[in-house]
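Weekly puzzle thread! Below is a chain. First person to post its structure in token form gets bragging rights.
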Amino acid sequence: MSRVRAFTLIELLVVIAIITLLAALLFPVFATARGKAKEISCVSNLRQIGLAIRMYAQDHDELYPFAVDPTDKFTPQIWSEFPQFQALIPSMPMLHETLQPYLRSNAIFRCPSDTGYDVEDFNGTPLDASPSSFEKFGTSYNYRTEISFRRMGEASFQQPSQVNTLFDAAGRWHGGYLFDRLRYNVLHGDGHVKNLSRDQIDRLWDTPL
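Winning reply:
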């Protein structure tokens, strides 16, 4: 009779260690792939919203929507240095409400990666956007409301390709595990959409309309 050779304890531990190592290496890859799929869906949303903004502009003397985002509506104090703008906010609708006639569904304002936030990215003001910004406010995106206040549109932008018209409310939704922890999908003034790092979007904020 032939003997059946069993694994020794050391061999089992080596196999387990290899499997654990492979899982540790592959998990970020799978997570990144899922994150990329969500990013692509979010980019598609922004492109469609961009088309809706252009249709709105065609009906309103080439001006972009006179509307605000959750940041403006619920923390208007961020405009305290511009009281003439701040005074307009209570009477202004939300952007997703204004664009409703130009879109099939408001679900287009939901970023698949939206997990909410508790502090606004660009000014550090506390705001409870849980369990997600879309569920709380009806949109995952923020609007460069200065465009509204100044009654502007693509034709009046100095550099349309350098205007951050609409963008993710929180950069961590699309941030990587190791690098570029804050990244934003951004709809630009000329209609193109791009995923940007925090430094890149900060440069857009610094670019005059």
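Puzzle host: Confirmed. Bonus trivia for everyone else. The first strand starts at residue 117 and ends at 119.
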